[in-house]
Amino acid sequence: MVGTIGLRGIFIRFGFLLVFAAFALFFAVVNPVFATGGNLMNIAEGSAILLIVALGMTLIVATGGIDLSVGIALDFGAAFSIVAMQSYGADWVTACAAGVIGGSLVGLLNAALVVGLRVSPFMATLGTFFIGSSVQRIFTNGGGPISFRQMPDGFRNLAMGNVGGVPMEVVIAAILAVIYFVVLERSVWGRRIHAMGMQRSAATVAGIRVNRILIVCYVAAAATCAVGGLIAGASIRMFTPLSGFAYLLDAIAAVFIGAALHPRGRPNVPGTIAGVLFLGMVVNGLNLMGLNFNTKDALSGIILVSALALAVAQRRMR
């Protein structure tokens, strides 16, 4: 009986980490290149933008909501910065500021709908997604990319530079992760956000200014995603409309996989990092196995669904 309880406790608390370790071991055995330092850095670099977007999603899910417009904020970050440099001759610092402000507009619209008009977060951010998608198509005359090959080196280095050999995008993602960890897991604001997410009516009765926190969270999450857009734009030296949608589902999956690591099943920054790295590891490992595109996508989907099912099972068993 004691052994059964012990195994149940281990599964509930560390089930996902055991699966994570099993897949890492499997990929390392199948292809030794997987475990090399260079390849592990490739996984980290390839996961940087997704981690940035997932951090924003973590903040919103922690409030008890969800944000389907994180990809739009990413797109706006890239678009505003590229257009600022190409059409208005802005230096790269000003362009970065323009990108973050552009992304923040998405958060402001979400906040206005959720707080001002009392629309549910799902419907509000879904509406913002459709509005933002249409704006991008109109602005680009149907969805064509906006290229800027002569962008300043400072902006280009957001994606191609490095600090002591560590890719700049990894450094940026790590800095944002530390900031989010301190705010969400170690500050009074973080405790208030989690209180809202668990029981909003009780948080309101307790005197927490729920609406003010929601506004700040939606704007901060969108601004964070816009930083991902800056890196994406710098990487390919262009703005590609609607490219941010590619990160939406993976960001949601990473947050909910990561919540399985929390004792109370709450969204948390370390869990989100683990979820993002798990997704990056699976993609990288399947690529190294040399599978064809369709087989790789099918296996990736099966693994992702299985991981989410495991996360749900862990939450229900608590």
Description:
This protein has helices at 2-30, 37-62, 70-88, 92-116, 121-139, 153-160, 168-186, 188-198, 200-205, 210-236, 248-259, 269-288, 293-317; strands at 146-147, 162-163, 166-167, 238-239. The chain has 318 residues and is an all-alpha fold. The protein has a two-stranded antiparallel sheet. A hairpin with a 2-residue loop joins strand 2 (162-163) and strand 3. The radius of gyration is 20 Å and the shape is globular. The chain starts with a helix and ends with a helix. The model has no long low-confidence stretch (mean pLDDT 91).
Walk across the major sheet and give the strand order: 1-4
Terminal CA distance reads 18 Å
Question: What pattern of helices and strands is seen along the backbone?
Answer: HHHHHEHEEHHHHEHHH
**Overall pLDDT confidence:** 91
Q: Secondary-structure blueprint of this entry?
A:
Blueprint: H1 2-30, H2 37-62, H3 70-88, H4 92-116, H5 121-139, E1 146-147, H6 153-160, E2 162-163, E3 166-167, H7 168-186, H8 188-198, H9 200-205, H10 210-236, E4 238-239, H11 248-259, H12 269-288, H13 293-317
Antiparallel strand pairs: 1-4, 2-3
Helix pairs in contact: 1-12, 1-13, 2-7, 2-10, 2-11, 2-12, 3-4, 3-5, 3-10, 4-5, 4-10, 6-10, 7-8, 11-12, 11-13, 12-13
